[in-house]
Amino acid sequence: MLIFEQSKPGRKATAQAPLNRADVSAIPEQFRRKQSAALPEVSEMQAVRHYTRLSRKNFSIDTQFYPLGSCTMKYNPRACNSLASLPGLVSRHPQAPASHSQGFMACLFELQEMLREVTGMKAVSLSPAAGAQGEFAGVAMIRAYHDARGDTARCEILAPDAAHGTNPATAVMCGYKVREIPTGPDGDVDLEALKAVVGPQTAGIMLTNPSTLGVFDRKIEAIAKTVHEAGGLLYYDGANLNAILGKVRPGTMGFDVIHMNLHKTFSTPHGGGGPGAGPVGVSERLIPYLPVPMVAKDGDEYQWITENERPESIGRLTAFAGNAGVLLRAYIYARMLGREGMPRVAEYSTLNANYMLKQLQSVGFQAAYPQRRATHEFIITLKKQAKELGVNTMDFAKRLLDYGFHAPTTYFPLLVPECLLIEPTETEDKATLDDFIDAMRSILEEATVDPELVKGAPYTLPVKRLDDVKAARELDLAWMPVVE
Amino acid sequence: MLIFEQSKPGRKATAQAPLNRADVSAIPEQFRRKQSAALPEVSEMQAVRHYTRLSRKNFSIDTQFYPLGSCTMKYNPRACNSLASLPGLVSRHPQAPASHSQGFMACLFELQEMLREVTGMKAVSLSPAAGAQGEFAGVAMIRAYHDARGDTARCEILAPDAAHGTNPATAVMCGYKVREIPTGPDGDVDLEALKAVVGPQTAGIMLTNPSTLGVFDRKIEAIAKTVHEAGGLLYYDGANLNAILGKVRPGTMGFDVIHMNLHKTFSTPHGGGGPGAGPVGVSERLIPYLPVPMVAKDGDEYQWITENERPESIGRLTAFAGNAGVLLRAYIYARMLGREGMPRVAEYSTLNANYMLKQLQSVGFQAAYPQRRATHEFIITLKKQAKELGVNTMDFAKRLLDYGFHAPTTYFPLLVPECLLIEPTETEDKATLDDFIDAMRSILEEATVDPELVKGAPYTLPVKRLDDVKAARELDLAWMPVVE
Amino acid sequence: MPFIPHTEDEVQEMLAAIGAASIDELFDEIPDSLKLSQLDAIPTALSEMEITHLMAKRAQQDGEPTCFIGAGAYDHHIPAAVWQLTTRGEFYTAYTPYQAEASQGTLQLLYEFQSMMVALTGMDVSNASLYDGASALAEAVLMSVRANRKSKSKRVLMPRTVHPAYRRVVRNIVKNQQIELVELPFDPQTGVTDPACLAQYAGEDFAALVIPQPNFFGVMEDVDALTDWAHENGTLAIGVVNPIALALLKPPGLWGEAGADICCGEGQPLGAPLASGGPYFGFLCCKQAQVRQMPGRIIGRTLDLDGKVGYTLTLQAREQHIRRSKATSNICTNQGLMVTAATIHMALLGTEGLERAAAASYQNTQKLVDALTAVPGVEVLFDQPAFHERVLRLPAPAKGVLRSLAAHNVLGGFDLSGDYPELGDAILVCATEKRTDEEIETYAQKLERVIQLQGGVTCGLVPKE
Amino acid sequence: MPFIPHTEDEVQEMLAAIGAASIDELFDEIPDSLKLSQLDAIPTALSEMEITHLMAKRAQQDGEPTCFIGAGAYDHHIPAAVWQLTTRGEFYTAYTPYQAEASQGTLQLLYEFQSMMVALTGMDVSNASLYDGASALAEAVLMSVRANRKSKSKRVLMPRTVHPAYRRVVRNIVKNQQIELVELPFDPQTGVTDPACLAQYAGEDFAALVIPQPNFFGVMEDVDALTDWAHENGTLAIGVVNPIALALLKPPGLWGEAGADICCGEGQPLGAPLASGGPYFGFLCCKQAQVRQMPGRIIGRTLDLDGKVGYTLTLQAREQHIRRSKATSNICTNQGLMVTAATIHMALLGTEGLERAAAASYQNTQKLVDALTAVPGVEVLFDQPAFHERVLRLPAPAKGVLRSLAAHNVLGGFDLSGDYPELGDAILVCATEKRTDEEIETYAQKLERVIQLQGGVTCGLVPKE
Ligand SMILES: Cc1ncc(COP(=O)(O)O)c(C=O)c1O
Ligand SMILES: Cc1ncc(COP(=O)(O)O)c(C=O)c1O
C-alpha cells in the first residue's frame, strides 16, 4: 500500500511543524498556489510504520551478503554514521566562515592528504559528488590542460570495451568522441589495437586497473607509455581501488588523473543509490585545473581554496563543497584503517575473491579468465548453462535471492556473455562465502534437474519477477489522486 | 543460528576496544581468571547483521498493530528517543554535583509537577523503576504510615480478584497477607463483599480504575469511604491511567497513593520487556514517606531531596535516581501533549475501544460485560467458541499473528474464561481497527469451517507453535560450548 | 584487524584451496616495480574510541553559531523520525535497486518520492534525484538543449537573479558542449528579472529560459509572464524552485498559460541537515513530453508474474549503463539516501505541516527584517514580495560586520559584495521557522552594537544613501 | 492533534457505529462529581521543534565535565553500533515477548544474553534482568532466604565494603519481610573484609553472606576464603561483581571450593551510557539448584511443532502473572532494552575486546593514582590489588576540593566522607579506558592548584597525617 493510500484529508495528527499557521496573506495572490499540494496526510505513527515496513522489503549489507561486482558492498561501520552526525557537524552551514569551520576543515584537509598518499597522486580535490562526477572533473581537466597548451585538435577519448558506462557517457558530456579499444583474450587491453588508434587526436584514455573484468592489466606501464608518447593523458577510474589499496598506486602506474569512489573503497553507505563522493587526484601538470573548493593549511590554520585562488580551475561542480557528510564518513573510516589497515583491504578482498573463484570452479562453473588471478572480483560465465539448460544469468541471479543472497552484477561487462561479476569484499567471512558457493552449487543442480524452477524464481520475496517491459511501455511514474 | 555459532577463536576483527592490551600482571594470580570467558568472537559486521536480522523476527509497534490489553502499546514518538539521547544528557554521571545538573533536574522537577497535576495527588516521586516497584513503594508507604502511628495490627492488603499479579506479589513483598475481593456480575467490585472483610486488620486496598476488566468502577467513592472508615488506605494501580488521563483524577476519587506506568501512559518504549518507570504520587498524609531522590526548587535553583532531607522516607529503591532516561522521554512526551493533549489521550483511546467492541460484537463476538461502556480497553470471551468449536483463545491469538496483528492479552484477568483483553490505544487509526475486526471475523469463519486450521496457527512466522512444556521440563537456559 | 573477520586458520585453509602459499602470492601478476612498500603519510589506525574522542573535539571546535544564512541551504526543523528511519540498515546499506524483487522497499519509496514531487511542482514526472540543486540545473539546461525540437540553438537565457554558485556550476558543466549562457540583468529597483528586458531577444533562438522562484534575493519573479514569453518564443521554460516555498507558491506546472517545461531545485530543505553543504539532493521534474530526455533514475510501477503490484527502475535506455555514450547523462550513483529522508520528511509533515513550516519561515523572515531595519542605517533592498530571504544594505562594510557578528556566534547572513558589487554593502538574510524571537532579538542588538563600532571606524567610507 | 490520527469524519462514523452522540458520552459511567475540567499547572503543548530547542538548551546547560567518578556507574566506550541497533523499532517498541512466535528476535537475543552472562560469571543460569545492581542484590538476598534450605534464619551478612547505596536499597526492600542485615566491618589498613572477623559468627545461622568483588573501594576481597567460610557454615555465598572486571577476574562460579551460589551486579558497564543513573540493568545468576527460586524472566530454548529450534519464556510458574502472591518477586517490566544493548555490546567486543577494555581501565586508574599521588599531600588508602577504582586521602576538605574541581569542569571523584567518615577526607576515583593521558594530567594539575588554595584556607583544620 502506498503512503498516499493511507492519507485522509483533514488529518492533522502531527507535532512536527509549528503548531500554528502564520498569516501569509501579504503574499500577492498571483504568486500563491490555489490548491494545496496533495502530499499524504498521515499520523507520525503511520509514517513510521509504513517506512519501517518498507525498509524490510530491501536486501542490504546489514542483512545479506551482497556480492555485487564493481560496487564494493562492504560493511559500513556504524561509527562513521554517528560521528559524522554529531550536532556540531550537522549544524554547520556551508557558508559558515572559516573561523567557525576549523574542525570540519581539518578533517577535509587530512582526508586530502591521506588520499594523496594512498593513490600516489600529487594533489587531491574532494569536491565531486560521485564517481561519475569525478570522471567529469577528470576529463574536464584533461581538456583544460590541452586547451591551455593550445593543443585543441585532441577530440577523442579512448576507453576499453569493458569500461563502465559512465566512462563513455562522461567523455561525451565533456565534448569528446569516444573510441573503444578491444580487450585481448587474456582480459588485458589489446595493446596493439591501442597503438593502432592513438594519435594526435587522442586527448586521453580512461582505464580501470584492475579492470571491470576482474584482472590486473599487466601491461599497464606499456599502455601509459603509448598514450603519453602520443600526447594523451591517462585517466584512472578508481571504482576498483579496493583491490589494490595500499599495494599499488595509480600514480606509480603512470596515471595523470584519478577519481575514487569513497562509497566503495572507503565504505560510506550506498543508501539505496547514493550519495557517494568522487574525489579526484592528479599528477603535477593537472594541479592548476583541480575543481574547487579544496582546503589548504597555512601554519595552524585551514583555508578554503576557491575560484579566486585557482583561476584556471575547472571550477565547482556542486553549489558548495560536494557531499561533505560522505567525506566525513570516509575520513573516519580511513583513520580507523590507518596505514596498517589499508593494504589489508586489498589483501583480504583479493583472498576472498580468489577463494570463491576456485571453489565455484570446483563445483562446476566456468571462469571467464581461468588462467588469471582474480583481483578483488572475478567473472564467471554461464554461457554453457544458458545454452544447454536454457537457464540464463538472470535466472541464476533471481534464484540466488531465494537463497538469501543478493545477486552479483549481471551482464556487465557487456563483452563477456552470460556473465556474473562477483565481488565479495574483505569484510565477509569464510562461512558466508561457503554458504554462497553451496547455494550456487545447489542452483546449478536445480537448473539441471528442474530448469523451470530456476526460471520462475524468485518465489520468497515480496513480489515475483517483475514485468519490466510493461513498466517501460505503460509508464506509471507517479501516483495520482483518484478523482471521485 | 546463535551468535556463538558464528564465533571463531582467534578472530580479532574489531576496532571497538583499545587496540592494545595493557599489562595486568600486577594483579595477583589468585584474583585472576585462568580461562577467558567464552563470549562470541565475531566481526563488527557479523554482529550488526546478526542482530539486524534478529530484530526482524519481532512484532513491534513500529511494524504491527499491537492491541495488548493492559499494556498501552501506543506510538513511541521518535523525538523522545533522540532528545533524551543528546550527548549532554547521556554523558551525565549520576553522582555529578547539582551545579552540573540543573538542566537535567529542571526536567525532573517539571515532570513531577505535571504528574502531580494530572493525577490530583499532592506530591510525586519519580524514582521507582517500573510499575511493580511503584507498587512496592506505595505499599511500603502505607506500611510506614501505619507503623508511624503505632497502628501495627494491620496485616492485610485487599485486592480484587481481577487485580494484576504484581498487586498480590507486591503486598507479600511488603510483608502483608493478601485477601481477594470478588467482582460483581457487572464488573464492578462487589461492595458488599468488600464491606464484609474490611476491618482493623486492613492496611489498605489495591485497585485499578478503570479496572483490568475494562470498566470504570462506578462505586469508587463508596469503596473509598468504606476502606477509609476502616482505617485503611487506598492504593491506585495506574496501569490504566491512559483511559482517564486529564478526565478524572485518582486524587479526586479518594486514593492515597498511586503509581503510574510512564512506559504505558507516557509512551516510553517497552523495549521488549523494559525499562519502565513507575513514579508514585501521594495524598498529604503520605508525603513524608515518599521514596528518594526527588527534586525540589528553591528560587531558580534545583536541589536534590535525599534520605537526609526526608528521614521518614521509605528510602531509595535503586542505587541512583531510577530510570532517568525513561523519565526524560516521558517528560518530552508530556510537554508535546501539553494540557490540551492529555485529555485527548483518554478520549480517543476510549473512542477506539468502544468502536472496536461494538464492531466485534456485530461480527459475532461476546463482550464479557455487554451492558457496560468500554474504557480504553475491553474484554471479549471466546467461551462459546471454545466449547462449540474447540477453538480456544490461544488459537485465536496465534492465528491473529498470521494476519499480521499482535494478539491481545490472553487469559487475563483470570476470572473471565477464555478472554481476550483488547486495548487499541489512541494512536491507531480507524482503518487499522477495521482491518483487525475483519481479521477476527475471518478467523471466526475459519474456526467454524476448519477449526484445525486455526488450532495449528501460526504458519507464517519464523517458528510454528512452540513447545512450552518441553521448555520448562528440559531446561535449556544457556548455550554451552561443544567440547570436542 | 578492524572490519576483517578472518582468523589465521581460515586464511591458511583458503590459501590451500586456492593453491597459493601466501596472500602476497595473489598479487603476483602485478609488476614488482609498481608495488608499494610504505604509506608513511598516513597515520596509524585509531580505535573507534579514539576516533570518537577526536571527532567530538572537532565537532565542538566549530561551535554552534546561530544561523541567519540561507543562500541555498536552509536550517529547517527535521522531525526526529526522519533520520532514525533513514539510517535503518536496510535503507542505509542497500545499493541502487538493480534487483527489483530484492529492493521493493527502496523502489516503492522512490515511487512515492516521485509522486510527492509531482504533487508539489505540478509537473507530470520526477526523477529519483541528481547530485544537488546546482548540478540539477546544469542537467536541466543540457536536457532542454536536447529536448527543444523547435530550437537549433545551444543558447540558454540565464537571469542574474539565479544563485551565483548555480550559474557557475552550470557554466562549468555545459561549456564543454559549447552551450552558451546568456545573462539576463535584473531591475536594480525591484531585484527581479524585468520581462520587458527580454524584448531585445524576441525572435532569437534559445533552447531555454531559466526562471528562479523565489530568486536568489528571496524575491518573487513574475513567473507567469516569463514562462509565457518563453513559450511564445519557442523556448523551454526551466523553473528553479525551493520545495518548501512550493507549499505556498504557485507550482511551476501552472506558471503562465502552459506551465514550465522542466523544473528543478535543491532538495535539502526537505529533511537534509545543513551539514556543511552536503549530501543534499537535486530534484528534476518535467512534462510527460520530455520524459525520455530526463537524466537520472526513474522508477515505474508495474506488475509481477502473479499480477501483483511492484516497482522497478524504468526507462533505463536513457542511462549510461545501457546507452553508454548516448545516455542522457553520465550520472550513476545519485543521492538516494537523501531522497529517502525527504520522502519520510514529507510524509511526516504532510500538506498541512509543510505549509505551516513555509508560512512560519515567511513570517520569521518578516520579523527579522523588521528587527534589523530598526537598527539605524540598515535598510531593505528590493521591497517586493519575498519568501524567506531578504537583501539588506548595511551602513558599514558587510565583511567586517559579518565577521564581528560571527565573533559573537551569530552568522548574520551571506555577503553579496563578491557576486553583486553593485549592491554595495548588501547581505542576504534568512530566518526559517527554527529561529526564535529571542534569537532574532539578539541578532538585532548585536548588529546595532557592531555597526556603531564599525561605523565609527569606517565612517565616511561608505556614504549612507 | 499530536499522535492522534482521527479525522473529524472518522470520529463521526465511529460514534455512529457506537451509537453515541459525542466522545464525552463515552465517559457517562463516570460520576460527574469526579470529572476534571482544567489542567492549569500543565503548560500548553510544544511542537517537536520547540521541545527540541528546549532540550538542546537543557543538555548544554550541564556542560560535559570530564568524569573521574565511578562509584557504581562507569564511563566506558560504547560502540556506535550498539544503540543504532538497539533503537531499531523492532527491538525498541516491542513488549515483553508473551507471544513467543512473534518475538523470536527478542527471545533469541535474551537467550544469548543469558549465555554470555553464564560465560562471564561461571554460574549455571542467568535471568533476563532486574532493575539495577542495587535492587538485584536485594532480590538476591530475598532469594537466598528462600533458597537456603539449611538455614531457618532471616539474617544475612553484609560487609560494609558493599556500595553504600546498595546496602540502603537492600535494607529498604527486605526489611518489610523481617530480614536482618548484619554488617561486617572492614580492615582499616587493607579496606577489605577480613575473613578472620567472621570467626565470631561461626556456628550461627545465616541465610547468606554477601561478597563484593571488587569492593566499593575498588579493592579485591579474598573471595575464595569468604566463599568457603560461607559454605562451611551452611550459608549461601552471594557475589556482587562488576561485569567488565570479570573479563580479568576469577568468575564467582569458581570462587573457593564450590563457587558462589548466586551472583548479581550492575549491568551498566556493558553498553549503557551514564545517563544520570538509568536506565541500567541488574543481572542475577545462580547455580542450577537455585533456578526455581530466581526472580525475573528466564528464556528457554525449545522446539516448535516442526521440530525447529525456538525460544520462549519459561519457568513462568515463578512469576507474579502466574503465581501472584506466591511469586518469587513482584517484578514484571524489567530492563529488556538495556539487555539488548548489553548483548550487542558483548558481541561487538568479544572476549578479547572486553579483556582489553578491562585491562585499559585497570591501567588508566594506575596512571591516575600515580599522577594524583604526585600532588603533595595526596595519598592512596588501601594499597591493595584493585581494579579501576581507588581511595585517595586529600590534605584538604574533600567537599571543597571536589567543588572547586567541578568549577573547572573536572568531576574529581566520589566524596566518601558521608558514608565513611572514619576515612577522613577521602575520595574514590576512577579512570576507565576512555580517560586520556591528557585528561589525567589536567586533573592532576588542577588538583594541585585547588589543594594549594584550599590547603591555605583550611590549614590546621585537617592535620596531615
Ligand atoms: C567501474 C565503475 N566506474 C564508474 C562508476 C561510477 O561511479 P558512481 O556510481 O559513483 O558515479 C562505477 C559505479 O558503479 C563503476 O563501477
Ligand atoms: C494492571 C497492571 N498493574 C501493574 C503492572 C505492572 O507494571 P510494570 O510492568 O511496569 O511493573 C501492569 C503491567 O503489566 C499492569 O498491567
UniProtKB/TrEMBL annotation, chains A, B:
The glycine cleavage system catalyzes the degradation of glycine. The P protein binds the alpha-amino group of glycine through its pyridoxal phosphate cofactor; CO(2) is released and the remaining methylamine moiety is then transferred to the lipoamide cofactor of the H protein. Pfam families: Aminotran_5 (PF00266), GcvP2_C (PF21478). The glycine cleavage system is composed of four proteins: P, T, L and H. In this organism, the P 'protein' is a heterodimer of two subunits. GO terms for molecular function: glycine binding; glycine dehydrogenase (decarboxylating) activity; pyridoxal phosphate binding. It catalyses: N(6)-[(R)-lipoyl]-L-lysyl-[glycine-cleavage complex H protein] + glycine + H(+) = N(6)-[(R)-S(8)-aminomethyldihydrolipoyl]-L-lysyl-[glycine-cleavage complex H protein] + CO2. Keywords: Oxidoreductase, Pyridoxal phosphate. Its EC number is 1.4.4.2. This is Probable glycine dehydrogenase (decarboxylating) subunit 2. Residues 347-447 form the Glycine dehydrogenase C-terminal domain. SUPFAM superfamilies: PLP-dependent transferases (SSF53383). Residues 168-271 form the Aminotransferase class V domain. It comes from the Bacteria. One of its GO terms (biological process) is glycine decarboxylation via glycine cleavage system. GO terms for cellular component: cytosol; glycine cleavage complex. PANTHER family: GLYCINE DEHYDROGENASE (DECARBOXYLATING), MITOCHONDRIAL (PTHR11773:SF1), GLYCINE DEHYDROGENASE, DECARBOXYLATING (PTHR11773).
From TrEMBL, chains C, D:
The glycine cleavage system catalyzes the degradation of glycine. The P protein binds the alpha-amino group of glycine through its pyridoxal phosphate cofactor; CO(2) is released and the remaining methylamine moiety is then transferred to the lipoamide cofactor of the H protein. Residues 3-443 form the Glycine cleavage system P-protein N-terminal domain. Transmembrane segments: none annotated. Belongs to the GcvP family. N-terminal subunit subfamily. One of its GO terms (biological process) is glycine decarboxylation via glycine cleavage system. Its EC number is 1.4.4.2. One of its GO terms (molecular function) is glycine dehydrogenase (decarboxylating) activity. SUPFAM superfamilies: PLP-dependent transferases. InterPro entries: GcvPA (IPR023010), GDC-P_N (IPR049315), GDC_P (IPR020581), PyrdxlP-dep_Trfase (IPR015424), PyrdxlP-dep_Trfase_major (IPR015421), PyrdxlP-dep_Trfase_small (IPR015422). It catalyses: N(6)-[(R)-lipoyl]-L-lysyl-[glycine-cleavage complex H protein] + glycine + H(+) = N(6)-[(R)-S(8)-aminomethyldihydrolipoyl]-L-lysyl-[glycine-cleavage complex H protein] + CO2. CDD domains: GDC-P. This is Probable glycine dehydrogenase (decarboxylating) subunit 1. Pfam families: GDC-P. The glycine cleavage system is composed of four proteins: P, T, L and H. In this organism, the P 'protein' is a heterodimer of two subunits. Keywords: Oxidoreductase.
